[in-house]
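Title: Comparing notes on inverse folding

I've been comparing how different people in this forum approach sequence design from structure. To keep things fair, I'm posting one structure and asking everyone to reply with a full sequence. Here's the target:
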């Protein structure tokens, strides 16, 4: 077929929408795709972030039609939970009351026995064309375009992703001449191409939005990467952002449509004209079961929190501030039990230091902040001399070798000249017995990111006051800021184990920056003049908690007063005992059965050094709750490594400003982490990374593909969720627990639309610690969590 089929669109829409309406529809479709970050700056992402303004059940219905799967587990999962007692009749009855579902207990149980057939997903034109592999050609083009580091032969410069694809496709002899000629008739400008296609089809704006979103989901990994460019590499957005890919998928579908028969075209148009309309899903009952499943967890959490707290020292000698990361919960509990003179605090693990690390060499500075923030300051200087000439030169040599490996002649010359050296490195790395966490050097100083000037005194004071406010003003003479890190070899997803929020970077550097800042005598004097009382003496140390081995390394300094040596010794003894206890608690889930503590530690460390180990640790698996409350509310209570713990003292925050900041930052980050685990579990084909054993890294740091498919896989791999036989992660929406008055919480919901969307549309559950236990918020009022 050499020319596009002429299609009569008069019956599809009586009045053709304006170009502005189509542009708005396309914007809504692209906004529905969430961003992703590079592997080396990995952060957990809520894949439905752009849809948070809609109820989760409504988004699930749309996803059922557009991607073929709802956002819940299959009926068999809930049947097993019901039959095993994980979901109780009490949970189901409470879900029916609170959710307003039009079911009875008996009808819900019957539903699980004979669930209806899945919703028929919307079809692309390419689904009707035999002999074609759908949207993989577009994925191949994306892989080639973004594969800056691994492609062997340099492509000539092209102005945009769309133009790169269109030019290459017109000369791709794998495709019939008719397809290549049809593509040639489309404009070279992506916006003009979209406008022409929209005019040709004359769909309603709602149908056009549904179509564009559905097509983007066919290349969801690359769509997420293109969306991410606008977040973390904004200067590339015009050339490679998601609007470029949206033009590609629409053009590709247009090529498919013109190859259909007249009957097939009529069916295609009829399908999409109704695609934007709301539908009633036959699987709404699954959301009632999911609700009951989550109430089951909330019931056990409420019982745990209602139990008496362990006694703790009112005048600790050491306070240790840990990241809110769920992996810190076990360690904190064991540390406090081992050493009563140590009290622990919870705070976001970048310690309120919005910095990028520019001290590691000639490469780009590594952001060490949550993905929703931008670094304000750089650690280290901007001049190579100040970074250390030897380190700079060494890193430059390494990068030269990396680039040389991918040059056209590297197959011959590089192997001939460096093959033996690289062979020895492979052998040495393979024989390494234990993985160790790289320790960060002391920061040289703080400098502005935009002009390289040193940070001013008033900025130091503001940073210090903010951190001390989040910590609740320290009372112990020795404060230890404990960042966390992990270590694993041959693991593209290593950054995801290091941190689920701060760009895949460990918190040790942030802890060292914050410690140096708080130890500045001028800063201490200034914050005390501002009304904050500090102990005397007062000193701050930094440390790193390795989440692989549960060892803690303290960065000592010569400035610490000698009077604090005993307190430090007690802390170091306590973290040693706590590490052993935490490893013992974690061992069964990892299949580690060593009885001897020393051998157990060796086994844990060996897991990180083992190149064949797909699961060095479980990461943030089973995360389920965020608790904003004084540590006294949770101390001594086994939360099973499932809760993010951030200190919040309601009596020190009468205006609710601190709480508002916590609900706008740590709560959003915890929700992103939680929903990425949830999405990777309930919709693994779309939002999971697949099998790590089949992964290949694309673009050096862009992401991974699975097997020989060019589709970019995002989210979490199977090995982070399953143990090989069964699911290890419980797919639950985050339960947020706040110790604060109702009025304070409600005022923040009223002021912050983003918070209101997440809560009112059930992307997370909000509860508070009431006089009679946990009570859960809803727009209709607060309801008790039955125990």
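Reply #1:
Here's my take.
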């Amino acid at each position: 077929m050499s020319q596009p089929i002429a299609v009569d669109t008069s019956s599809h829409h009586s009045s053709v929408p304006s170009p502005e309406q189509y542009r708005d529809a396309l914007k809504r479709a692209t906004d529905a795709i969430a961003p992703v970050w590079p592997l080396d700056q990995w952060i957990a992402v809520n894949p439905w972030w752009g849809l948070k303004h809609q109820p989760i059940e409504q988004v699930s219905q749309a996803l059922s039609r557009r991607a073929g799967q709802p956002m819940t587990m299959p009926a068999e999962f809930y049947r097993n939970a019901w039959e095993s007692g994980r979901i109780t009749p009490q949970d189901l009855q409470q879900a029916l009351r609170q959710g307003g579902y039009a079911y009875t207990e008996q009808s819900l149980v019957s539903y699980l026995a004979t669930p209806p057939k899945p919703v028929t997903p919307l079809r692309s034109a390419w689904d009707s064309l035999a002999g074609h592999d759908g949207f993989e050609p577009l994925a191949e083009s994306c892989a080639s375009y973004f594969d800056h580091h691994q492609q062997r032969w340099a492509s000539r410069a092209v102005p945009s992703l769309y133009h790169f694809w269109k030019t290459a496709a017109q000369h791709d002899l794998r495709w019939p001449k008719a397809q290549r000629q049809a593509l040639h008739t489309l404009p070279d400008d992506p916006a003009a191409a979209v406008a022409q296609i929209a005019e040709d089809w004359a769909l309603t704006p709602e149908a056009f939005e549904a179509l564009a979103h559905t097509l983007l989901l066919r290349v969801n990994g690359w769509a997420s990467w293109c969306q991410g460019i606008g977040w973390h590499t904004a200067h590339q957005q015009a050339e490679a952002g998601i609007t470029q890919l949206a033009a590609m998928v629409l053009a590709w579908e247009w090529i498919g449509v013109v190859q259909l028969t007249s009957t097939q075209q009529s069916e295609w148009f009829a399908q999409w004209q109704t695609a934007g309309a709301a539908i009633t899903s036959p699987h709404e009952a699954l959301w009632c079961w999911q609700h009951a499943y989550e109430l089951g967890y909330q019931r056990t959490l409420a019982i745990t929190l209602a139990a008496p707290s362990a006694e703790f020292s009112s005048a600790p000698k050491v306070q240790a501030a840990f990241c809110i990361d769920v992996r810190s919960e076990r360690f904190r509990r064991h540390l406090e039990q081992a050493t009563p003179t140590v009290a622990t605090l919870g705070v976001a693990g970048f310690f309120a230091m919005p910095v990028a690390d520019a001290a590691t060499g000639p490469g780009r500075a590594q952001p060490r902040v949550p993905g929703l923030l931008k670094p304000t300051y750089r650690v280290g200087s901007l001049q190579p001399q100040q970074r250390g000439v030897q380190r700079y030169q060494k890193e430059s040599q390494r990068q030269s070798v990396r680039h040389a490996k991918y040059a056209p002649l590297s197959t011959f010359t590089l192997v001939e000249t460096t093959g033996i050296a690289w062979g020895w490195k492979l052998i040495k790395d393979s024989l390494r017995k234990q993985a160790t966490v790289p320790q960060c050097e002391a920061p040289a100083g703080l400098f502005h990111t935009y002009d390289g000037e040193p940070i001013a005194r008033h900025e130091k004071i503001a940073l210090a006051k903010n951190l001390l406010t989040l910590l609740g003003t320290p009372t112990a003479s020795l404060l230890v800021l404990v960042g966390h890190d992990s270590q694993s070899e041959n693991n593209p997803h290593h950054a995801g184990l290091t941190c689920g929020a701060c760009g895949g970077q460990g918190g040790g550097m942030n802890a060292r920056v914050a410690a140096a800042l708080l130890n500045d005598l001028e800063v201490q004097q200034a914050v005390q003049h501002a009304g904050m009382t500090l102990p005397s003496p007062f000193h701050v140390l930094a440390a790193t908690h390795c989440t692989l081995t549960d060892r803690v390394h303290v960065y000592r300094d010569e400035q610490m007063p000698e009077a604090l040596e005993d307190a430090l010794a007690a802390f170091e003894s306590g973290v040693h005992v706590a590490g052993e206890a935490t490893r013992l608690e974690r061992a069964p889930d990892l299949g580690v059965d060593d009885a001897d503590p020393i051998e157990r530690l060796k086994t844990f460390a060996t897991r990180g050094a083992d190149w064949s180990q797909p699961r060095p640790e479980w990461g943030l698996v089973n995360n389920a709750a965020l608790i904003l409350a004084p540590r006294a509310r949770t101390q001594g209570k086994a939360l099973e490594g499932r809760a993010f713990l951030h200190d919040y003292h309601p009596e020190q925050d009468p205006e609710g400003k601190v709480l508002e900041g916590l609900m706008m930052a740590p709560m959003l980050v915890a929700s992103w982490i939680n929903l990425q685990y949830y999405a990777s579990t309930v919709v693994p084909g779309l939002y999971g990374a697949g099998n790590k054993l089949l992964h290949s890294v694309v673009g050096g740091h862009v992401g991974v593909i699975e097997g020989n498919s060019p589709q970019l896989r995002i989210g979490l791999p199977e090995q982070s969720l399953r143990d090989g036989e069964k699911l290890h992660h419980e797919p639950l929406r985050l339960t947020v627990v706040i110790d604060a008055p109702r009025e304070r919480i409600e005022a923040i919901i009223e002021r912050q639309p983003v918070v209101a969307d997440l809560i009112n549309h059930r992307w997370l559950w909000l509860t508070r610690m009431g006089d009679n236990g946990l009570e859960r918020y809803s727009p209709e009022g607060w309801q008790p969590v039955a125990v």
